[in-house]
Amino acid sequence: MTVLLDVKHLQTRFKSRKRYIHAVNDVSFQVHEGEALGVVGESGCGKSVTMLSLLKLLPPAARIEQGEAIFNGDDLLQMNSEQIRKVRGAQIGMIFQDPMSSLNPVINIGTQLSEPLRAHLKMSKADAWERSVQLLDMVGIPEPRARLSDYPHQLSGGMRQRVMIAMGLACKPKILIADEPTTALDVTIQAQIVDLVKDLREELHTTIIWITHDLSLIAGLVDRIMVMYAGYIVEEALVDDLYTDPRHPYTIGLFGSLPDLGGQQRRLTTIGGAPPNLEAIPTCCPFVPRCKYAIDKCKIENPPIKPISGSGESLHSIACWVDIRDRREA
Amino acid sequence: MTEKDIPQITTSGLLNAEGLSQDRKYSLWRDAVARLMANKLAVISLALVILLIIISLIGPYFTPYDFLSQDLSARSQPPSWAHWMGSDYLGRDVLSRVIYGARTATVTSFAVVAVSGFIGIILGSLSGFAGGRVDTFIMWITDMVMAVPPMLLAMVASVALRPMVAAWMERMYASTGDTFYRQTFWADIFLLVTVLTLVLWPTYARLIRGQIITNKTKNYVLAARALGITNSSILVRYIIPNSLGPVVVQLSAGLGSAMLWESAFSFLGIGVHPPIPSWGNMISEGMDYWRNSPHLLAAPAIVLGVMTVAFSFLGDGLNDALNPKQWSD
After folding, report:
1. Which residues contact B175 (CB under 8 A, 6 or more apart)?
2. Is any Cβ of chain B less than 8 angstroms from the Cβ of A64?
3. 3-state secondary structure A44-59
4. Which of the residues A54, B127, B215, B282 could staple to B138 if both were Cys, CB 3.0 to 4.6 A apart?
């Protein structure tokens, strides 16, 4: 598989007054052509900031301190605003969490959907309108032509997210980054959106990066999962490996907080404590205060991410000093 | 309001259901007009405003009497068929004077709103977009202007500027011989517009600045940037239209308040000077005779009150019509 996007040593931090918040720390990962990558972690662990950094969509307080992101032979992080604008939407699309507020309330759906087509593909107004009909049809919106003259407030949340997906895919980008696109929707709609993205992925061969905090949601959608904690990638594995054999204590904690269908009823476990504040780059493992497997070494040195022994081709990697299999049996 | 639900059905639901909207391109402004037309109070207000504009444009040519002609044999007459609004203490026809006063009020308020709105919108947008020092500086000026009681500031400016305007008019008359420079009407209006603009522009500047700063950080702006839409397009189609609603409302309500300001100044004797009629100086003159001739006070006061309320309701109607987010509520 060819590498489509190669991110190396990305570090992003926010400046607030005189302090820094280290939101993304030394994050490296690769995205392969045609795959679907899940990025999982709790709120504030750097998932969204990582992706926003790649497209240089960060708020003014944030700065990319170092790193590179090679896409099509160019470093996204070195591009000027005009170059990166041509990548956004055309090469890498991104859709966001809250469909209720992600559409401009004062212009109708058709005009909004036409915007990226006109900006990147230089389509005429009439052509873009016609293409918009096809796009809405593609994302499963009934009576697409009539819907184009509607305003966002006339559509339901699920419909609006479908519109957002249509906009994100309008110019057939190579990568679609979906930043918790289902979080604001109710459960049945969530499943519909996941199915829609699955179908579209097969149809358009788009590479997907799906950010979520819900491990159960993306099991059937993605090929590979990256677990993030406190701005670090703590575990990276193919989806089956991660679900059957999670190795990082944080990942195990995340699985413990999911209910099983079918199995016996049990009290859901939580991960005690809260994520660390990210004001300083930790000298210990950032998960130490919440980890029940911690050993002395964890308090002295932050573990780098490394493939686990015997993982072979699948490259199952974790950032942990402890082999928890020994500890579990003990 | 229950009427709000009705246009919701008319504009999208019904038309779509009947297939009428298939090829009709909707636009914010067209829908807003449809909505405005569904609001009875706003339509009545709009009609009054249009009537006022027509009267102030052509009314003075159709008045039953000349607004200056005195008839000392018919002084302080109550309303009658000859004088619909009665006559004043010099026997001048009150209706004719109210009609001419409409011109004074309209010219002043439209000029004030146009100039102060223009300055406010330019400086406010600059402030909102540029941020940083430019923003600090412009907001510092608005703070200074707004810290002084507006009436006081306007009075000081008016008193300070009047001799300069008068001297300029005198010089122009001496050099051109044009009688235009001998009358006081346009000089008074010019002075009023200048001082009221000085007092009123910060309101617009602050309003549009706040709007732009809020809209800059909206999710749909981020979403648009993520789609690679150009900055100029984001500005023109995302930020400005979303910022404009409250400004349009403020402009409409501002017309009413500028009218009130003009009357207040003329009432105090620093606005439009007699014998040129202004509703304010008519009220001022009527005050002396209200025991025996209440109509002298009532006629201009009622007209002024009705027009101020009309501008206010029109502003309200525009607010509802221009805010699609409120449509579904």
Report:
1. none
2. no
3. CCCHHHHHHHHCCCCC
4. B127
